[in-house]
Amino acid sequence: VMSLKVPWSKRHKLVTKASAGGLSYSLSNSFAQPLTSKELLDITRQRGDSQYIIDEYLNHSLHYTPNGGSRDLRAEVANHYESSEISASNVIICPGAQVALATVMHTIIGDGKGDAITFRPGYQSVSK
CA 6 to CA 14: how far, in whole Å? Predict the structure, then answer.
């Protein structure tokens, strides 16, 4: 019987996880440490953010967003650029780094005729 190798990412998370005696803040991880809704609201109030932001959070729908991100979010991202050539239609929002990397990879070498060099350790999904 062949045993499965524990992925590097899983071993890394076990070592760095705060609840396992690891780091309180780890900038090497690509995942956010979970907060409760109450903790998020407490942080928002402590920062002095307006009640408007809290109300928007409490009344925000949890339906699926359009592929590529909602138009209002894409417009906000585009507003951070000083070019008139950047608009919401030039921005894509991905639900995580792995989806973003896969999208870029398919865009660049999508015809199957290109090659890519990946580094390890890294996202296992980008390696063959």
Answer: 11
